[in-house]
Specification:
Length: 762
């Protein structure tokens, strides 16, 4: 305790400069703790949103045998349609004779003709009145926050008549233990945590270490003096750690306060593709403990490590003895990580991709962690090697001064360049995550197909839907019966009810089509799938309340067609049945109305609005359009972008703090060189070279290793992208920009004022 108190007394009683340095350490630590709290609260934010979605899920009443009890309970049916990159959720509710509690966010169940909408849907209906066609009824109120996952979620509860929900199921209460579609899938959440840890936490550890080592040379000399006065070795280390712990503790408290302000600001403004309520980002006990205990513990370790040299060799410190050469052990984790990633890259390039096993995933992730830490640990040695070789051959005075300085201060290169080097490395990894998620959710089709179940859709509604503007084609797809009639084969077949004109609108290169008779429809690019001329199948038709069968035989005459890649409407073989051959007033029971349109967002939205106006409760399945995956990708992209922004702020802050601190520490050397006749222009050129050279020597391997990390990640994920050029220009531009900013930022660090007193103090 005596040593800790002595350290605090030295801190507050050693002049205004030390107090200013302490304030800078507190400010830097608070920024780091705020960023740390942001990263740690992301899983809690997602969990809170999923919990509210789970709370509004219907619970079906069942008897002891497990069958649903429909007697008297309200009926409900949910429709989830794409609206751009978002999901529009419509929950239709038909009242019953039994009273149940309303879902969260509502004061009462909607009556027939009433519509309760979320604030986002309310704004949507004002901006685009045509969208009101999807909600049959009159707006009666807004859904509260308890019933919405996010403030911008598109949700509506629509009250309808009981007979309008042919596929409705009874509900006795609301709330289940899980969300059917989580905001971020658990596997993607694990990847997101790993990426955020690399993007934010690794540069954050460097930044906190830089803040804890401000004015390291001056503090080390002061501690060496205490050691020479008789203070023990461990006591000297504790005195050195006292200042850093005090700054880290104050910075941790201030950082949590800053996080609360940031949480309010983000919940009010929102991020592109991701919004939240303020309560979602509340600080958990674990986050508070990690910030208030973990950051001071890190500062304690850094402070003791920084005081180790002064405690072990105080005379060498006071006399300014040169530093020992940098250790080569930093190349060991770098070589191990690069070796593993190189193996996976070679395996992927040669077509021998390892299966995506748990072992492979953890092996690659461990290799990435080793490579990232190796880039930082090997930076002093790489900078020292470059400095020695350039200094021996350099004929330029500024370059020679810069390289000699880097050669004698290897730790300074680590503090200045480590944060930005790590940022470039993890940027490649984040890019690989986004590429993999985009491949999983991208809709590559040029034609959008919509499947609407005919059961529950009236004939008049069907005619309106088939004549919607923006449609390229439409047809009815029937599936044969699965009955046990021995005269009918058990295998199923598909019949396409369409004319030759409709067929030509759906596919291309149609050969042999004749109207008025059944034909054997075959894709010329696909092998036969089991149909043969003469095979018979039975299709069920409903005529009023009566069901009858329609027997179709595969004809001899074939219709060949070819569909270009990206515009497929159906595959394989089917029976082409002219609409005129269907009995009048008879509708197939196992059939789907298929629509086709262009795949651009505006057309898809217009078609879905039209379907909603004609048949609001119809179940619409847009094929090849995974809205859940699109939204999840948007959320992950937003969070990774936010993480990259935090990482950029941390990296730049670490550079500015370290570069400014390094310039202050070498004021005595600059003053001596000025008194010897060195020009200010020469000193500034030397300062720029001194700062830029460690960055260059670190950024080049960071770019190469980062691309290997991205490719390895895509290989184990089964991605088709290996050593492509996607994203490489952005990374190169970012690296060049980092060097340019560092060079410009180093210019003001050499002042013109000459103070000979600095030489005497040094």
């Amino acid at each position: 305790m005596r040593e800790l108190l002595l350290g605090l007394r030295l801190l507050f009683g050693s002049g205004r400069g030390n107090r200013a340095r302490f304030a800078l350490m507190v400010a830097g630590g608070s920024l780091g703790v705020c960023c740390l709290a942001v990263v740690l609260t992301v899983p809690g934010i997602l969990a809170s949103q999923d919990a509210r979605v789970a709370a509004r899920q219907p619970v079906v009443p069942r008897d002891p045998s497990g069958r649903a009890i429909c007697d008297g309970f309200p009926l409900t049916s949910e429709r989830a349609d794409p609206y751009g990159a978002a999901t529009l959720t419509r929950v239709f509710i038909a009242p019953g004779t039994r009273e149940i509690a309303p879902p969260p966010g509502l004061a009462a169940l909607p009556r027939e003709g009433q519509v309760f909408v979320s604030p986002a849907v309310h704004r949507l209906l004002r901006a685009e009145p045509r969208s009101a066609q999807r909600f049959p009824g009159k707006e009666a109120g807004l859904i509260g926050a308890a019933g919405l996952a996010r403030p911008d979620e598109l949700v509506a509860y629509v009250g309808v008549a009981r007979g309008a929900l042919s596929d409705g199921h009874p509900v006795k209460q609301w709330g289940t233990g899980y969300a059917p579609y989580p905001t971020v899938d658990p596997s993607a959440l694990g990847i997101l945590r790993f990426a955020l840890a690399g993007v934010v936490l690794l540069p954050l550890a460097v930044f906190l270490s830089v803040c804890a080592r401000l004015s390291a040379a001056e503090r080390t000399r002061r501690l060496a003096a205490l050691r020479l006065l008789g203070l023990s070795r461990k006591g000297t280390q504790r005195v050195g750690a006292a200042e850093t712990v005090a700054a880290a503790g104050a910075g941790a408290v201030l950082g949590l306060v800053e996080y609360l302000a940031v949480n309010r600001l983000v919940s009010w403004i929102g991020l592109p593709g991701f919004t939240m309520y303020p309560s979602d980002g509340r600080l958990s006990a674990t986050t508070v403990v990690v910030c208030l205990v973990g950051c001071p513990a890190l500062a304690w370790s850094v402070g003791r490590a920084g005081a180790r040299k002064a405690a072990a060799a105080p005379l060498a410190v006071r006399r300014g003895a040169p530093e020992k050469p940098a250790s080569k052990w930093g190349f060991v984790p770098l070589a191990a990580g690069v070796g593993v990633m190189a193996g996976y890259c070679v395996a992927g390039a040669t077509g021998r991709v390892p299966t995506g096993t748990f072992l492979s995933a953890w092996l690659v992730l461990s290799a990435m962690a080793l490579a990232g830490s190796g880039l930082v640990l090997s930076l002093p040695a790489l900078s020292g090697i470059l400095a020695r070789r350039v200094a021996r051959t350099a004929e330029s005075l500024p370059l020679g001064l810069a390289m000699r300085r880097n050669e004698t201060e290897l730790g300074g290169a680590l503090r200045v360049a480590a944060g930005l080097v790590l940022l470039v490395f993890v940027a490649s990894l984040a890019q690989g995550v986004l590429i993999a998620m985009d491949d999983a959710s991208r809709n590559t089709s040029t034609v959008q197909r919509y499947d609407i179940t005919l059961d529950g859709t009236g004939e008049a509604q069907q005619r309106v839907i088939e004549n919607l503007p923006g449609l390229r084609a439409h047809f009815v797809e029937m599936r044969s019966d699965l009955g046990t009639d021995e005269s009918v084969p058990r295998d199923t077949a598909t019949a396409v009810v369409a004319t030759c004109a409709q067929l030509r609108a759906m596919v291309r290169s149609v050969e042999g089509c004749v109207d008025g008779r059944p034909l054997w429809l075959r894709d010329s690019t696909q092998p036969a799938d089991g149909l043969a001329a003469g095979d018979s199948f039975r299709f069920l038709l409903r005529d009023g309340h009566r069901t009858r069968g329609l027997k179709l035989t595969v004809p001899d005459q074939e219709v060949r067609f070819h569909t270009p890649v990206g515009s497929e409407m159906f595959y394989g073989e089917a029976i082409l049945l002219p609409p005129s051959l269907l009995p009048r007033d008879a509708r197939p029971t196992r059939a789907t109305l298929v629509l086709a349109s262009d795949s651009d967002d505006a057309t898809v939205r217009r078609v879905l609005d039209g379907i909603g106006a004609a048949a609001p409760t119809a179940q619409v399945l847009p094929q090849s359009l995974n809205v859940t995956a699109l939204h999840q990708t948007a959320v992950v992209r937003t969070l990774l972008t936010a993480g990259m922004t935090l990482g950029l702020v941390i990296g730049v802050a670490a550079y500015l703090v370290a570069a400014a601190d390094r310039a202050v520490e070498r004021r005595a050397q600059v003053t001596a060189l000025t008194l010897l006749g060195a020009r200010t222009r020469t000193l500034r050129a030397a300062q720029v070279a001194q700062v830029v050279s460690p960055l260059v020597v670190g950024l080049v391997p960071a770019l190469v290793v980062g691309r290997m990390a991205e490719s390895s990640y895509l290989v184990i994920g089964g991605g088709p992208v290996l050593w492509d050029r996607a994203g490489l220009p952005v990374l190169l531009a970012g690296a060049v920009g980092v060097v340019a900013v560092a060079a410009v930022g180093a210019l003001p660090l050499v002042g013109r004022r000459i103070d000979p007193e600095l030489i005497r103090r040094h």
